[in-house]
Write a structure and sequence with these properties.
Elements lengths: L8 E6 L1 H5 L6 H10 L7 E5 L3 H14 L2 E5 L10 H9 L3 E3 L1 H13 L6 H4 L3 E3 L3 E3 L8 E6 L2 E6 L3 H16 L8 E7 L4 H11 L8 E6 L4 E7 L5 H15 L3 E4 L4 H11 L4 E5 L5 H7 L8 E6 L3 H8 L3 H7 L4 H15 L3 E7 L14 E7 L4 E7 L4 H21 L6 H4 L4
Parallel strand pairs: 1-2, 1-3, 3-8, 13-14, 13-15
Antiparallel strand pairs: 4-5, 6-7, 7-8, 9-11, 9-12, 10-11, 15-16, 16-17
């Protein structure tokens, strides 16, 4: 007797580029996160290349074991895009041209001033009776069919197209797999690691409620905390945990949701009607780029200076040649003068200056690789600090740039100027 598979969900990621490592699989994470917001946890994930037999075997096995299977990739115009053909064969139904899919492909081509060729029109062929999934960005529609007791849902591999199609994918999934209310509060933090945050919670003696799941998502330069509850009745507990975290590490919390350091700084500047400038050496303009990456940054940022060579530090920002010769470019005297010069030339209210040895070479016993001097503040209140940041060049630059944004934010908000990333570092 045939029995239905459990009400679970699986992902199948396809493509030779994934197997070779040419493309990093970010799509499965996007799908899993979207499902988690509905209370659904992916039970299994598999990856196969563009091989007909392996793809067929993987789809057949996962469809046997799960109620929903989401297949990502293999819907394009080339000969190695096999998903539709393989699923039709497994389901024992014909692969036919779908009129709406053809119209979609032709319209997509027309908007780009091209005529749909046979390769383009390959994407209009779907298993007979398939339910189409609209793709507002790309030429390949997705589709859903039943394979035995499993609903198989297909999506293209292009990440932006997948994201645009996810709401419809989630709706199709919810018809087969039970969803429930999930409330996740995301906090963006900087300057404390996972172990430090967990230790602070442990040491506080706070009775963390079991109904509130605490999750960490490490990144560079920010760390995301997630407070998740699965019932509306537990939202007050979630808020109580948030209050506790604010009391423990509030100055390291830069915002909720997807707030970036640059956004948090821009908000503080706008609140006080102030502007900021940058004077950068080892970060090569990264701090200015992080600020101007955000829309509307022109009202808080008008000028930045990348003074990589010592001569440019002197000619553009007025850094003393004697100090450069005596102390070196990576010194307190130099970054202080860089900041003074940037503030004077730009007319900005606040600024950040950095000079360091990002590596991999250039270090010495006195100034090892990763040594950085920072100066930040205003003409009236200026701070300086030396740090040593271990790690590869990209990481050093990212962390220095992030620290620069954070330090100006702290001064504007009256927060402690001795964050943990300073206080825990041996001097």
């Amino acid at each position: 007797m045939t029995t239905n598979p459990p009400a679970t969900i699986a992902l199948l990621m396809t493509g030779d580029e994934l197997m070779r490592g040419d493309t990093v699989d970010s799509n499965s994470a996007k799908i899993a996160c979207a499902l988690a917001e509905t209370g659904v946890v992916v039970q299994e994930k598999a990856t196969v290349g563009d091989d007909r037999q392996r793809l067929s075997a993987a789809i057949a096995r996962l469809a046997e074991d799960h109620a929903v299977l989401i297949v990502n990739g293999g819907l394009g115009p080339t000969s190695d895009d096999l998903t539709a053909e393989v699923i039709a064969q497994l389901a024992g139904i014909a692969l036919v041209e779908h009129a709406k899919a053809r119209t979609h492909v032709e319209d997509w081509c027309a908007r780009r001033g091209i005529t749909a060729n046979d390769a383009n029109l390959k994407q209009a062929f779907m298993p007979l009776g398939a339910q189409l999934i609209h793709n507002p960005r790309g030429s390949a529609l997705g589709f859903a069919v039943d394979l035995g007791h499993c609903r198989v849902i297909t999506t293209p591999g292009v990440p932006s197209e997948l994201m645009a199609m996810l709401p419809e994918v989630l709706a199709l999934t919810s018809e087969r797999v039970a969803t429930h209310s999930v409330h996740t509060l995301r906090l963006q933090t900087f300057g404390m690691g996972e172990s430090s945050i967990q230790q602070a919670i442990n040491d506080s003696g706070y009775a963390w409620p079991a109904q509130v799941a605490l999750g960490f998502r490490a990144g560079l330069p920010q760390l995301e905390l997630k407070l998740t509850v699965n019932d509306d009745a537990h939202i007050p507990l979630q808020r109580a945990c948030l209050d506790h975290l604010q009391a423990l590490m509030g100055d390291h919390i830069i915002g909720e949701a997807s707030t970036t350091l640059a956004q948090a700084l821009a908000h503080a500047l706008r609140e006080q009607h102030k502007t900021v400038t940058t004077a950068e050496s080892c970060t090569g303009g990264l701090i200015a780029a992080m600020i101007t990456r955000e829309p509307g940054s022109s009202d808080i940022f008008q000028a930045g200076y990348v003074t990589y060579a010592n001569d440019i530090k002197h000619r553009i920002l007025g850094v003393s040649l004697d100090d450069l010769d005596h102390h070196g470019a990576v010194s307190e005297a130099v970054v202080r003068q860089m900041l003074v010069g940037a503030l004077a030339h730009s007319g900005a209210d606040m600024g950040i200056a950095v000079s360091g040895i990002a590596g991999p070479g250039g270090g010495s016993e006195e100034k090892p690789v990763g040594t950085v001097w920072l100066a930040w503040g205003s003409s009236d209140i200026m701070h300086t600090r030396r740090v040593v940041i271990p790690g590869p060049r990209d990481d050093v630059q990212q962390l220095v740039a992030a620290a620069g944004l954070d330090l100006v934010r702290r001064q504007l908000l009256g927060l402690p100027t001795e964050p943990q990333y300073f206080s825990r570092q041996a001097q």
